[in-house]
Design brief:
Elements lengths: L2 H27 L20 H21 L2 H9 L3 H10 L2 H5 L6 E2 H8 L3 H13 L4 E4 L2 E3 L12 H18 L1 H6 L13 H7 L7 H6 L2 H18 L4 H4 L7 E5 L7 H7 L4 E6 L1 H14 L1 H5 L3 E5 L13 E5 L7 H14 L5 E6 L1 E2 L4 H11 L17 H14 L4 E2 H10 L2 E8 L4 E7 L1
Pfam family, one: Methyltransf_2
Keywords: Methyltransferase, S-adenosyl-L-methionine, Transferase
Organism: Rhizopogon vesiculosus
Length: 446
């Protein structure tokens, strides 16, 4: 395909995918959202966002590829590094700016906001203006800022705020020493969780262990982490699994490493035929019982949920259940630890049991390899001339891969890497359910 023809094809993909997204918003709410509005659109909280995410994946990928092709290379190169959004978001989250602005629906002047949070006003104005340029907050008049649909995500009541906080604090801390860990002879070739960049930085402050040890040392920190897992439902569209996978055919589900119930709470409300077992460490289950008593008391009263402490490295989950679900568990651990988890899960399986691993599946940039995986296992490949992995449209999985490296010395995996792990554990891949961001891989006992 000639260069100009590729650009025209990308323009067509941009136009088509944008119109698809507009149509979906109109179908779900009768209108399309505005950057200025504060109220969420009905589609924002939809359980099944696969169609919207499919459109956005193509839109973002095609737009970025077109822009990078047409812009001078120096322009694009500096844009990769001159990014301080995270530093400004850290200010907004730490100072609860969104919560404050709720009391000023018409906006508040930066001088007045400065008095409330005790940050020099001219510096604060620069932070707010950068975020507003990104679409987070509105500058309704000169130096007067108000909330909008995007900034409301940072409200204390929104679980996504806790995931944002995890990135601006812990991931940023690990990123600051990442290069050092690559050159330090002690850590350069290590995949031990205790040698993750985040813990490398903590070691300098006298803090030992691995990431989850660090989380458990402070109740507020641990609770925020578990709330951030609920935020993944909205970030990744994870709850689409509830409508795409046939849970109505099964009666028992084991949520392995289920935390406070980011997945199983919505499951209990959507599929009341299912009895759920939540496995996690005792301290996580204390928080889980409290949240279930408040958010889904009927499931507790009807004995549709049970909480059982489990160390999945050393113990076997409840045996003989229909479904064993692991969401964002395997990606937290290097290969050795991941293999231990899967082998213990395999020991629990009955003849008809299924294992669902819900994680990012890192896509190949080789179109030849991607098309092989598409034809044999159903992995979606982007249309040409888009990069086969959708380029920037799937960028979050590659950023998440770095997050796993920074926090845990772990990784997101390719399909081939999952196959190596699962085969060694005695599992057979049956199907890949592509949910337009993460995937659900369905396994049976080999």
């Amino acid at each position: 395909m000639a260069n100009k023809a590729k650009l025209e094809a990308l323009l067509t993909l941009i136009n088509t995918s944008a119109r698809d997204a507009i149509t979906l918003y109109e179908q779900h709410g009768g209108s399309v959202p505005s950057m200025d509005q504060v109220e969420p659109h009905p589609l924002d909280d939809a359980v099944d966002q696969v169609a919207l995410k499919t459109a956005i994946r193509t839109l973002e990928g095609a737009f970025a590829q077109l822009s990078t092709t047409l812009a001078p290379p120096a322009h694009s190169a500096i844009n990769l590094v001159q990014v301080y959004d995270y530093a400004c978001m850290r200010v907004a989250v730490r100072e609860n700016i969104t919560n404050i602005l709720v009391n000023y629906p018409k906006g508040i002047h930066v001088n007045d906001l400065s008095k409330i949070i005790n940050i020099e006003p001219k510096k604060l104005a620069r932070v707010m203006r950068l975020l507003a340029t990104r679409g987070c907050y509105n500058e309704v008049d000169m130096d007067v800022f108000a909330n909008n649909r995007l900034s409301m995500i940072l409200h204390n009541d929104n679980p996504v705020r806790h995931m944002v906080n995890l990135h601006v604090e812990s991931c940023a801390k690990g990123a600051a020493v990442f290069y050092d860990t690559l050159k330090d002879p002690r850590t350069a070739y290590s995949y031990e969780p205790t040698d993750a960049p985040f813990m490398y930085a903590n070691n300098k402050e006298g803090i030992q262990g691995e990431f989850f040890d660090f989380m458990r040392q402070d109740d507020e920190r641990r609770e925020s982490y578990h709330k951030s897992m609920r935020g993944l439902n909205g970030i990744m569209g994870s709850l689409a699994v509830l409508t795409h996978f046939p849970f109505e055919k099964y009666s028992t589900v084991v949520d392995v490493g289920g935390g406070i119930g980011a997945f199983s709470l919505p499951l209990a409300k959507t599929h009341k035929n299912v009895k759920i077992t939540i496995h996690d460490l005792p301290e996580a289950l204390v928080q889980a019982r409290s949240i279930w008593a408040k958010d889904c008391p009927e499931a507790v009263a009807e004995n549709r949920v049970e909480f059982e402490a489990l160390n999945f490295f050393e113990q076997v989950p409840a045996k003989g259940k229909d479904i064993y679900y692991l969401r964002n568990i395997i990606h937290d651990w290097p290969d050795h630890e991941s293999a231990l988890i899967l082998r213990n899960v395999r020991k629990a399986l009955g003849p008809n049991s299924r294992v669902l691993i819900h994680d990012y599946v890192v896509c190949q940039l080789s179109r030849k390899q991607a098309e092989v995986e598409s034809s044999t296992l159903g992995v979606v490949v982007a249309p040409e001339p888009l990069l086969p992995n959708f380029g920037v449209g799937n960028m979050r999985m590659y950023q998440q891969d770095m997050s796993m490296l920074l926090l845990h010395n772990a990784k997101e995996r390719t399909l081939q890497e999952f196959l190596v792990l699962s085969t060694a554990a005695g599992l057979k891949l049956e199907k890949v359910w592509d949910l337009a961001e993460a995937c659900v891989m369905e396994f049976s006992a080999a």
